Amino acid sequence: MVVHSQSAALDHCSLIKTCKPTTSVFKGIPVVDLRDPEAKTLIVKACEEYGFFKLVNHGVPMEFFTRLEAEALKFFNLPQSDKDKAGPPDPFGYGLKKIGSNGDVGWVEYLLLNTNPQITSLKSLTVFRETPEIFRSSAVNDYIQAVKRMTFEVVELMADGLKIEPRDALSRLLRDEKSDSCFRLNHYPPCPELQALGGRNLIGFGEHTDPQIISVLRSNNTSGLQICLRDKTWVSVPPDQTSFFINVGDALQVMTNGRLRSVRHRVLAESMRSRVSMIYFGGPPLSEKIAPLASLMAKGEESLYEEFTWWEYKTSAYKSRLGAYRLGHFEKKTGGAAGQ
Ligand SMILES: C=C1C[C@]23C[C@@]1(O)CC[C@H]2[C@@]12CC[C@H](O)[C@@](C)(C(=O)O1)[C@H]2[C@@H]3C(=O)O
Ligand SMILES: O=C(O)CCC(=O)C(=O)O
Ligand SMILES: [Fe+2]
């Protein structure tokens, strides 16, 4: 639904969608302790049931979070004209409200970066030059390196839990120097005018699944993140600035032939507090064939999906609207109930 502004003050968010307030807080969020000997089993269980879990005792020092968050806020607090020098995102760079290039908008500003220096686009280089503080400091790089290392461990545990052989079948795709991964810093400013919306919530980042293999999110202590459960209800994820929240992406759903499900999620804006989040999206190299892993398939089990490369999936995803069910296009017509 489009907001019909109730005052002039609301004009600047008049194209952004609202939704009914959700009161239910996700109390049963699966929590995985990376040091727990049972971690591999718990990761698989959480990803089968929710495509989502919270990770604690992850070993990434809090200092990495606080440094990057401070640098991010310094950047987002710059005058608009300075931030605009790092945009528009195509797809990398600074973006304000527009998400992707197919008409999606949200109450958010962001920096989208490539994590692979070898294929750093000209746009990213411009970002480096135009926003010296955040990119001259080592905060972004240090954070990404630490989160990548931890993510490799998580997907290796996942492979162990799923009895995938070899155990680096997933992590090698993320470790590959041509891995098509990216990193996003999101800033959701407070929206005091929300109170005039009669209790409705403003969409910060509309509902979607992440196309990649895995997404690793960390935010400050502001709520807003919600996930969609199997019964289609939306629940709020209580924020925890010391932990990571891990999402199964579409590519992992396909590689496990639907056993792990990519999770639909969204972010709602708050009226009083600003939310800062940082997300590493781990993707495979562009040329990688995305198909169910042989060691996971039962005898005679057939793939639910047509064969495609990550490049083909990504190209199709980037032509789609944020909320689209992107995997639908790649499901085998006779393949059974993979859909949503
Ligand atoms: C509307 C879009 C934004 C997006 C590209 C897309 O066309 C559909 C997928 C979107 C998404 C969601 C997860 C990540 O935030 C993202 C970077 C990605 O890989 O897919 C975004 C894309 C984007 O913001 O460009
Ligand atoms: O900002 C967040 O907390 C989540 C955003 C998100 O889902 C995304 O950028 O893909
Ligand atoms: Fe997402």
From TrEMBL:
Pathway the protein takes part in: Hormone biosynthesis; Plant hormone biosynthesis; gibberellin biosynthesis
Matching PROSITE patterns: FE2OG_OXY
Molecular function terms from GO: gibberellin 2-beta-dioxygenase activity; metal ion binding
Keywords: Dioxygenase, Iron, Metal-binding, Oxidoreductase
Catalytic activity, as annotated: gibberellin A1 + 2-oxoglutarate + O2 = gibberellin A8 + succinate + CO2
Superkingdom as given in the UniProt entry: Eukaryota
Domain Fe2OG dioxygenase: residue ranges: 178-284
Signal peptide: none
Family recorded in the similarity comment: Belongs to the iron/ascorbate-dependent oxidoreductase family. GA2OX subfamily.
Physiological role: Catalyzes the 2-beta-hydroxylation of several biologically active gibberellins, leading to the homeostatic regulation of their endogenous level. Catabolism of gibberellins (GAs) plays a central role in plant development. Converts GA9/GA20 to GA51/GA29 and GA4/GA1 to GA34/GA8.
Protein name per Swiss-Prot or TrEMBL: gibberellin 2beta-dioxygenase
Organism from which the protein derives: Gossypium trilobum
Lineage, top ranks: Eukaryota, Viridiplantae, Streptophyta, Embryophyta, Tracheophyta
